[in-house]
Amino acid sequence: MSNELSNKTALVTGSTAGIGAAAATLLASRGAAVVVTGRDPERGASVVKEIVASGGSARFVAADLGDLDSIAALAREVGGVDILVNNAAIFPGGALLDQDVESFEAAFDLNVRAPYFLTAAIVPGMVERGGGSIVNISTMAARVGMAGLSAYSATKAAIESFTRTWAVELGGSGIRVNTVAPGPTRTDMVMAAMGEEGAAMVAGTTILGRLALPEEIAEVIAFLASDASSYLTGATIAADAGRTAI
Ligand SMILES: NC(=O)c1ccc[n+]([C@@H]2O[C@H](COP(=O)([O-])OP(=O)(O)OC[C@H]3O[C@@H](n4cnc5c(N)ncnc54)[C@H](OP(=O)(O)O)[C@@H]3O)[C@@H](O)[C@H]2O)c1
What we know:
By secondary structure, this protein is α/β, with parallel strands linked by helices. The chain is 46% helix and 15% strand. It has one domain (9-245): NAD(P)-binding Rossmann-like Domain (Rossmann fold, 3-Layer(aba) Sandwich).
């Protein structure tokens, strides 16, 4: 435990699993009071339990971010926030000729509309508190063409664009906005979509040649969330083992 983030409240979307759970755990270990959110109360309770058992502070608030009323209810329930991590997303694999409309729309609802309106609901409270840090989660696939990922990649290109515009709009209020763009990371989402073999193939296209652990991506999120990154805003950090440097 450190106290770098004590007196800060952090809301991490999609923190019942994967990268979000690792980020919530790390932020809590640095002293933040963390709001864990997702749809699944059992997984939420288990993340909260682990954080509390390690001496951190966390609570779970259920929300389905595909639904605008649920987004508004989450923002009301959480109240003031200093750190917002827009992490929840789905991964609708599908080539141009195969993509169905339902999963296309679901991805834009969760990956683009949700962070947009959740951030809009959270920012007035940040302004009242005198500032804050917003960390958006993208993917390396927003910058390299990967077959079968055009809808998903486009949702993430949108969030990288939000980052730049919100940085301009909110900088004067002391709010920094940055993006982490991870490479292939060992989480349920990726393993379910790609399997061991598919994930290993994508990992093999990176310079370091391996999958990330969720904890390695969480370190970059925590850096952007904290004052250690006080001179960064509007930036996208590639945490992708060098894939987009090739
Ligand atoms: N893993 C990778 O290789 C990788 C690579 C690049 C970028 N990313 C990005 O990293 C982020 C996290 O990915 P991950 O791999 O950790 O995903 P994950 O393991 O599938 O976790 C996704 C999280 O989002 C939540 N979620 C899904 N649908 C939701 C909804 N309708 N409302 C509220 N919450 C919802 C899930 O919680 P519930 O099920 O409880 O709702 C879960 O906590 C995403 O933005 C992803 O695009 C991941």
